[in-house]
Amino acid sequence: MTNEHKGRRVTLHDMCLRDGMHAKREQIPLEKMVEIAGALDEAGMPMMQVTHGAGVGGNSLQHGFALASNEEYLSAVCAKVKRATVSVLLIPGLGTVKELHSAYDCGARSVHVATHCTEADTSPQHIAYARKLGMDTTGFLMMAHLNDPDGIAQQGKKMESYGAQTIYITDSAGYMLPDDVRARVHALRDVLNPETQIGFHGHHNIAMGVANSIAAIEAGAERIDAAAAGLGAGAGNTPMEVLVAVCRRLGIETGVDVWKIQDIAEDLVVPMMDFPIRVDRDALTLGYAGVYGSFLLWAKRAGEKYGVPARDILVELGRRKMIGGQEDMIEDTALTLARERGLLAA
Amino acid sequence: MKKIKCALIGSGNIGTDLIYKILRSPVLEPVWMVGIDPESEGLKRASSMGLKVTAEGVDGLLPHVRSDGIRIAFDATSAYVHAENSRKLNELGVMMIDLTPAAIGPLCVPPVNLREHAERQEMNVNMISCAGQATIPIVHAVSRIQSVAYAEIVASLASKSVGPGTRANLDEFTYTTSDALEKIGGARKGKALAVINPAEPPLIMRNTIQCLCDDEPDRVRITESIFSMIAEVQKYVPGYKLVNGPLFDGKRVAVFMQVAGLGDYLPTYAGNLDIMTAAACRTAEMFAQEILDGTITLTPAMPAALEEF
Fold it and tell me: Model ipTM?
């Protein structure tokens, strides 16, 4: 087993300061973000994503307001980081090229342009603009379990045609199993140009983050997203310190220091968690029912407010086929359920 | 009764749906449809419905404007070509209803400010966006009672109802809608979000409107204002319906709307298409009525005025 991976090299991309913002209700203090970014850089992390959980343009009633502006976070992090590439997330329909340009001016040099896995054609403007700025540009297909391998391949090919240099399979619901990941990586590899890289972004809702990431690497993925201590939406992202250790055991080169990344997770990230990032029943429901990971905390809040269990809200959102970005439908669904159950006046 | 003759520019979803709306109008008559692809479904359908068609863009229409008596044109092409289309048609005295995000003319939301535009005899009015038409009336309903510091809207659209033009230019949609939430909605700051959902069967258009008031909202007066505004919009979009709210939470007012279409060209889930075409049609009707009554006269733009473009 070990030999087939020996000498493989993958580029790791830490998400704890962007996806982790979801788990912190966007409340990571500026100094904390800078401290962790500096430590990740020190540990040899080649890429890290920062700012609001929903990316550039994310500050809103829909997605919450962060403690600082994206520009403040980015400028401070970019001033601190010496080697790593700092990236941002841009979801078309939420973020715009104006905000991307502003992020670039603050030092961001890489971007995940993210669409739902069937809507790649909403991204040409943003991908082209990022390339024009000279940014390392990824097309990021979210909720990838909702499109079959051929469909993912077609969508990825579109993003490549707009200029994306890497295409990501994004398991936003933490729903996929290793075979699902392999099939999608193979399908992409078959259609993409040889120089276009493939990436995988996992969530740990059914505890498959590390296994899925390794399956992606085996199938040919060269970039993997994970987060120190797993700090991210739902039951978190693939835990970075575990992934780094597993890669080392398998002989996959990451360039990240096995001990330093553990220390970052343990000493810096875990102490700032508002609650343990683990597979609790609500996170498990996301992964089991295939619901968008960032819905979790909003559903818990709406559940408490209207007296409806978060799990019931999540299952209903899954049944109504809500996708990332539709956080407004959480309160709407909670209100409707509460009324149906006689908890609110009709 | 005499009707005002209209041309439709752009043979996509919006242009095609407009044919049905205009055919029902007591004061408008669809005469021409302009496209750029002779094989497009929109042009074929327009032709089968008795309209004259050209696949040579606006230039294919220009020689016929005077002879066919075209007075109003609807532009459902793209922000990039609208200015040129408008210049050429205004020059011939044709009034433009702009359904692109170009917004070179004043922004129009019928129940909020249509009458003002008709009184000023504007030669180009912009219909903002489907999300703008669905949400600005509600923001205005709040801001006419008390000041709104911030308005944020989320439009969820069925994937099948969003055409290639909107997809390729999503930022223009965002900018134009955000701007109109301020200018017409009356919020000091506006933010618009769009989500395209591919679920099957397609989901009906949803809009969530959230306003942050400067002071504690007056629940009774705001609720009353919102209900009366919904009734105004329902006059031209019967499927405009309140699902939840108004919800009052501190200084926040949240309203959850659904927009079902009439199912003319696309099925009823595409309320986004209907609210745009119905608003454009209502706008044209108001101008048409004034033209028929002789209260406004459309005059060709003077060649000297061209330099302004």
Answer: 0.93
